[in-house]
Amino acid sequence: MTVEGRTRIAKDQENSVREAAERVLRLEADALHGLADGLGEKFDAAIDLLFATTGKVVISGMGKSGHVARKIAATLASTGSPAHFVHPGEASHGDLGMIRREDAVLALSNSGETAELNDLVAYAKFRRIPLLAMVGKAPSTLAASADVALVLPTMPEACPMGLAPTTSTTMMLALGDALAVALMQRRGFSSDQFRVLHPGGRLGRDFLKVEDLMHTGEAMPIVASGTAMSEAVLVMTAKGFGCVGVTAGDDRLLGIVTDGDLRRHMGTDLLARRVDEVMTPSAKTIRPKALAAEALGLMNNAEHPFTSLFVADGEAAVGFLHMHDILRAGIA
Hints:
Strand content: 15-25%
Distance between the termini: 58 Å
Largest sheet: 5 strands, parallel
CATH topology of the largest domain: Rossmann fold
CATH class of the largest domain: Alpha Beta
Radius of gyration: 31 Å
Strand order of the largest sheet: 2-1-3-4-5
Number of domains: 2
CATH superfamily of the largest domain: Glucose-6-phosphate isomerase like protein, domain 1
């Protein structure tokens, strides 16, 4: 065979592989559209059931459904709905003890006839524990046993033999995300709560607030109105931030003295003057509840960048934030 012939065959194989991949994605995308179009009263009932659960959502499934169940449990737990995965096989050998009366059970099975789930389903029914099913077939044992059955639309598996769980598991995964997000909205789950559950990694850093990083109390570079510059310079040096705030008796921030102010007022009488004569009035401030990323944006002002901010609650100075504090926290 010629080089041209081998090249043509290789190119045909490459195109065939890419076409197979595109077919998978289009089939699964169509399935998700069908799933979204079919959400109705059963989905609403599922949200009601999970919202009313005072314990945890116990999620179970076998095989590929089990892998999806683990992910759904993790997503629910991280978005304000306590949940954990129980393997159906282990459930039959003692792990049923992890399920309590105040919990709810979510069982996943494409066929609805997964034998390994039988003991778990029977236990839930006997203990009157709410049972939610996610199934691919409505006339099935699991669907019939469930208090609420979420039935996936009938769609072909993306596997060319129609055997490997592909489209069905994609729909289960997406439906689990839909449940989690809908519950977030129902619970009024806030960004503050989200950050508490995601202290590590980029997600945690993105939700850090100014109050989480600011210096307070004795660590703040603050002097009272009327203080001599000789004393103010000592405070600036001791605190090491290159500035000092000037406050009234009620903690109102009146202004700020920076290194730049010192240079502008340099003279033989500088240290004998009062801070009120040297300070820049109306210092820039930020709210304690503002995101640290917002503070960094203010400091990086393209026209007049600066490296520090006083934190004010109303007009009262309650903290101090330096750019180094933000950078140390990994926000950039």
